[in-house]
Amino acid sequence: MRGFCTLSVLALVAATGSAQVIYSSDFEGDNGGWSGDNDWEWGSPVGFAGSNSSLEPIGGHSGNNAWGTVIGGDHSPSTVSSLTQTFDVTGYTGLSMTFWEWSDSGGNTFDMAAVLVNGNQEYLSNGNSNDAWREVVLDLSAYDGATSLDVNFQFSTTSVVERTGWYLDDVQLSGVPTPGAAALLGLGGLAAARRRR
Ligand SMILES: [Ca+2]
Ligand SMILES: [Ca+2]
After folding, report:
1. Quick one: average pLDDT of 130-146?
2. Ligand 2 centroid from CA 117, angstroms
């Protein structure tokens, strides 16, 4: 009976576990492990005054560094730029991602700033954060049970209007360890304790 109670407590703790950080980067010491093609650059934005009264930030949301679609310049016309990374999320549920964006691409009329997860569009920026950093929180619990997440910050432009573009900082991926995995860990510890008696 004592063992049953111990197991019940272990299961309850596991089922109500809190989210843990799977990945986090402020892009200060390094680029956070992302691969960026075409316009994506890691560096320190300088407050460039772009076309159509657009502005880039000065520095990052945190510190000096961020990712941006051309640091110190307007984005390119007619270009698809992808910033990608794959995360192992085995053993997690309740997945979520937060990041900070500075978006000046002009309201999605021509240029699109989207987050793709495993090929699905999970976010579309409205293209205008009013010259300020804005926090974005994405509920990715639809991917519970997936073993990996392919995340792509994809910026697609036309030839019509160029602005400073899309800047990203402080990206974090979180999830709750699954009850099954946590309970098994607890059971292992309990069995070891019994053997020691
Ligand atoms: Ca930063
Ligand atoms: Ca730019």
Report:
1. 96
2. 24
For the question of whether the overall pTM of this predicted structure is more than 0.70, the answer is: yes
Q: Which ligand lies nearest to the CA atom of residue 45 in the structure?
A: 2
Ligand nearest to the CA of 63: 1
Ligand nearest to the CA of 49: 2
Q: Which domains does the chain have, with CATH numbers?
A: 19-177 (2.60.120.200)
Neighbours of 29 (CB within 10 A): 9
User: Measuring CA to CA, which residue among 182, 184, 145, 176 is closest to residue 22?
Assistant: 176
Q: In 3D, which of 159, 144, 99 has the Cα closest to residue 123?
A: 99
168 vs 162: CA distance, rounded Å: 18
